[in-house]
Please model this.
Amino acid sequence: QVQLVESGGGLVQPGGSLTLSCAASGSFFYIRTMGWYRQAPGKQRELVATITNGGNSDYADSAKGRFTISTDGAGNTVYLEMNSLKPEDTAVYYCNVAVKHITATQTYWGKGTLVTVSS
Model:
């Protein structure tokens, strides 16, 4: 089993910045990918950014140039630095982790952290 603990959400004014973090713990062989998704009210959950254990990252077009995904040295914590935030970035942000167990790869979701961009 894998536990994900997210933090860093909150209320920020347009143009402001926030950094989200997600720490993974539990029993697994290694982490394959970590990422962030978001779901705005009335919309489907969408990809924001992902990063592999090799350090390769991918971003949604809406996040390119404004958001940066990174991990800590151990590779068990993923961060999402968000700059130049816009009202349309308002959403619940979910951490997503794919881990390799001995016999299979499994994906886990965090409970989500709310980001509200408003003046």
The first strand starts at residue 2 and ends at 7. The chain has a mean pLDDT of 95.
